[in-house]
Amino acid sequence: MKLFRKLSEISPPPPYAVATIGNFDGVHLGHQAIIRQILQRAKTNSGTSVVISFDPHPLKVLRGQSCPPLLTTTEQKTAIFSRMGVDWFVCLEFTEAFSRLRPEEFIHQAIIDSLQVRELYVGYDFHFGRDRVGTISMLVGLAVSEGVQVTVVPPVKYEDHRVSSSLIRTLITTGKVAEAARFLGRHFSMDGVVVHGEHRGKSIGFPTANVAHRQEAVPAEGVYAGYALLENRRHQAVINLGRKPTFKGTALTLEAHIFDLVDDIYGRTIEIQFVERLRGEITFDSVEKLVAQIAQDAQHARELLAHRG
Question: Which of 17, 101, 154, 235 is the most interior residue, by most CB within 10 Å?
Answer without folding.
Answer: 17
